[in-house]
């Protein structure tokens, strides 16, 4: 694995020296409550950025434990647990805006993620998860989760910016003491309506594989990846395709456990269908042959959910 960048920040100094730039009033409300005057972030944060890894030629798969759960991400601060950030190519770029999809929600609950973006830009480093060479996943280890926002109260996506401040306050729980999370930022695939092209499927697999292998490289002991329907909201990704490719990437990268949050019964059914698809295409041969069979499943792009 080729690490393009490694930085270790004192969390308190990072947030003090690279203040967040927040334009949305509701996000300012959250930050005032989660990071009140005089409060200090604790510990150190390690940031790494990685060059795209070459996929193995043969489909040699680990016996990764794959767990599907209803509901949303759970953060419990365990060592070796990494939470996927469904990132934009510009790392955490909308953290201070009125947007609140999965990427921005994670940045809101972990405010130092925005300070990392500001610090990298101040240093002249590319704050990106994709460059001209391909995907460049970014890993953030040890970032405090200062609060939890209950988006089930009609606050997800574009609805967040329109909500009254009172509704935001009522949905917010400040975490004391704040636990720490490990975040894996990988850019969600985008595409046009119609059937997935082979290069789109291949690119998504490379992105997930690189991110998962980087998490493996940065972790002593077992690795658990926590993820969901990556890129299947605002970008209109196909749930079955994105599930299958992430599970395949985890097994190729020798991840110990992949915990998949499927939201509800419909999501669990989509997950099960993707796992059945994966079993149909797997075989003990060249990975290219497996990818050709995945292409043969004729997955199609869906519609954006507008968030």
What does this structure look like?
- By secondary structure, the protein is α/β, with parallel strands linked by helices.
- The chain has ten helices and twelve strands.
- It has helices at residues 11-17, 25-34, 102-109, 112-123, 159-162, 165-171, 198-217, 239-252, 265-281, 287-296, and strands at 3-10, 44-50, 65-69, 81-87, 130-131, 134-135, 138-144, 147-149, 172-174, 180-187, 224-227, 257-261.
- It is globular.
Structural class: alpha/beta
Number of DSSP helical runs: 10
Estimate percent helicity.
25-40%
- The whole-number mean of residue pLDDT values reads 95
User: β content, as a range?
Assistant: 15-25%
CATH topology: Leucine Aminopeptidase, subunit E, domain 1
Can you tag this structure with a few keywords?
single chain; 307 residues; Leucine Aminopeptidase, subunit E, domain 1; 8-stranded mixed β-sheet; two-stranded antiparallel sheet; globular
What secondary-structure arrangement, pairings included, does this model have?
Elements (H helix, E strand, L loop, with lengths): L2 E8 H7 L7 H10 L9 E7 L14 E5 L11 E7 L14 H8 L2 H12 L6 E2 L2 E2 L2 E7 L2 E3 L9 H4 L2 H7 E3 L5 E8 L10 H20 L6 E4 L11 H14 L4 E5 L3 H17 L5 H10 L11
Parallel strand pairs: 3-12, 4-10, 4-11, 11-12
Antiparallel strand pairs: 1-2, 2-7, 5-6, 7-10, 8-9
Helix pairs in contact: 1-4, 7-8, 8-9
Write a brief caption for the model:
With 307 residues, the chain is α/β, with parallel strands linked by helices. It has helices at 11-17, 25-34, 102-109, 112-123, 159-162, 165-171, 198-217, 239-252, 265-281, 287-296, and strands at residues 3-10, 44-50, 65-69, 81-87, 130-131, 134-135, 138-144, 147-149, 172-174, 180-187, 224-227, 257-261.
């Amino acid at each position: 694995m080729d690490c393009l960048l490694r930085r270790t920040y004192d969390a308190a100094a990072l947030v003090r020296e690279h203040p967040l730039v927040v334009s949305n009033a509701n996000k300012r409300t959250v930050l005032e409550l989660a990071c009140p005057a005089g409060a200090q972030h604790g510990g150190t944060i390690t940031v790494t950025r990685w060059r795209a890894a070459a996929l193995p030629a043969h489909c040699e798969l680990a016996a990764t434990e794959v767990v599907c759960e209803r509901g949303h991400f759970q953060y419990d601060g365990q060592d070796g647990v990494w939470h996927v950030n469904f990132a934009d190519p510009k790392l955490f770029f909308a953290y201070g805006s009125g947007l609140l999809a999965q990427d921005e929600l994670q940045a809101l609950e972990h405010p130092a993620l925005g300070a990392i973006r500001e610090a990298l830009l101040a240093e002249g480093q590319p704050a990106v998860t994709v460059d001209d060479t391909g995907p460049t996943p970014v890993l953030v280890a040890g970032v405090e989760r200062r609060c939890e926002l209950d988006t089930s109260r009609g606050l997800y996506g574009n609805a967040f910016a329109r909500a009254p401040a009172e509704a935001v306050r009522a949905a917010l729980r400040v975490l004391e003491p704040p636990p720490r999370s490990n975040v894996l930022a990988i850019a969600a695939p985008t595409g046009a309506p119609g059937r997935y092209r082979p290069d789109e499927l291949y690119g998504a697999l490379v992105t997930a594989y690189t991110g998962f292998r980087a998490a493996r490289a940065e972790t002593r002991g077992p690795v658990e990846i926590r993820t969901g329907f990556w890129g299947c909201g605002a970008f209109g990704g196909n749930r079955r395709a994105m599930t299958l490719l992430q599970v395949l990437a985890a097994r190729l990268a020798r991840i110990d456990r992949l915990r998949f949050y499927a939201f509800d019964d419909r999501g669990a059914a989509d997950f099960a269908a993707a796992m059945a698809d994966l079993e149909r295409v797997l075989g003990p041969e060249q990975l290219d042959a497996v990818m050709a069979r995945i292409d043969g499943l004729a997955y199609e792009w869906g519609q954006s959910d507008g968030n």
